[in-house]
Amino acid sequence: MKKIVSIALVLALVLAFAAFADEKAGMPGGTKLIFTTGGAQGTYYGFGGVLAGKVGEKTSTTITAITSGGSKANIEAMDDGDAQLGFVQSDVGAYAYRGTRLFDDKITNFSTVANLYMEQVQIVTLDPSIKTVADLKGKNVSVGAAGSGVYFNAVDLLNVYGLDIDKDIKPTYQSFGDSVEALQDGKIDAAFIVAGAPTTAVTSLAATRKVYLVGVDDEHILALRSVSPYYDKNVIMKEVYNTEDDVFTVAVGAVVIARDDVSEADVYNFLYGVFENKDEITAAHAKGADLNLSFAASYIAVPYHKGAVKYFSEKGIKVSGK
């Protein structure tokens, strides 16, 4: 009887260990990381929290997603050693690595983890008479935080329509949540919001008010792409915010980056936790449906982290690493 009990106990322990090993897959030796995302009402924070939770659940790496000032602030936090992972717009990542526009000096101590989804330049208004970017002339417009990626997206779009951000509109510098409140209160006429649609702040607005999105035509999209190759044509379907029609705009990539000194295991585990559990992530957040390995490996402005090189190599995809 004792022998039978002992065998049963051993089998139970083996099964328990196997279940634990299966649950904590990926690479062993993961550590604890801080993941800077964006504002509380933006897609970065909502989606980032889901990704962080799934990575922690499935691998040996633990990630804490926190709110932040967005792309530029995330790069600066990592440069200062205050974070190990962060979301950045694809154009902002390139600016940092090259030391242009938002950055006076090159910041090169970070690497790409993955390009996750496209984040649309959403020009939101409650005024149906504002139909094109040109109609923003003379209007009160929120253009994101001063010096942010959103600000430069606004500058680029306004410029191709012949508008100067300081001379032809009345700019205000606000977060997504503050922009929505200002729209509701009639303090501004429109707001630039660069985030993956649906965006929490805009969804909340559309639940109580009739929202209009300002589209960008093909001629001006081509002009914009000649200035910056990081913009791609994109569409926000009418079902997203209950608009009358689908709205064409431009979008940039939402890229996850990591400090170069983050371990190979941690970056590998981030990718493993995300892409091996896509269905579970999609059930928790709509942006999960956009996850795609080929797109994840498509960012060329900043070399990939060694942990990402390893993960993509196992999937038969070659990326340029440091």
Q: Note the main sheet.
A: 10 strands, mixed
H/E series: HEHEHEHEEHEHEHEHEHEHHHH
Strand content: 15-25%
**How many separate helices?**
13
Category from helices, strands and their pairing: alpha/beta
Number of strands: 10
Shape summary = globular
CA gyration radius, whole angstroms: 22 Å
Distance between the termini: 60 Å
SSE blueprint and pairings:
Layout: H1 2-23, E1 32-36, H2 43-58, E2 62-66, H3 71-79, E3 85-89, H4 90-98, E4 110-125, E5 140-142, H5 149-160, E6 170-172, H6 176-184, E7 190-195, H7 200-206, E8 212-213, H8 218-227, E9 232-236, H9 238-241, E10 247-259, H10 264-275, H11 278-284, H12 293-296, H13 306-314
Parallel strand pairs: 1-2, 1-3, 5-6, 5-7
Antiparallel strand pairs: 3-10, 4-7, 4-8, 4-10, 9-10
Structure description:
The chain has 322 residues and is α/β, with parallel strands linked by helices. It is built from 13 helices and 10 strands. It has helices at residues 2-23, 43-58, 71-79, 90-98, 149-160, 176-184, 200-206, 218-227, 238-241, 264-275, 278-284, 293-296, 306-314; strands at 32-36, 62-66, 85-89, 110-125, 140-142, 170-172, 190-195, 212-213, 232-236, 247-259. α5 (149-160) links the parallel β5 and β6.
Structure described in brief:
The chain is an alpha/beta fold and 322 residues long. Helix content is 40%, strand content 20%.
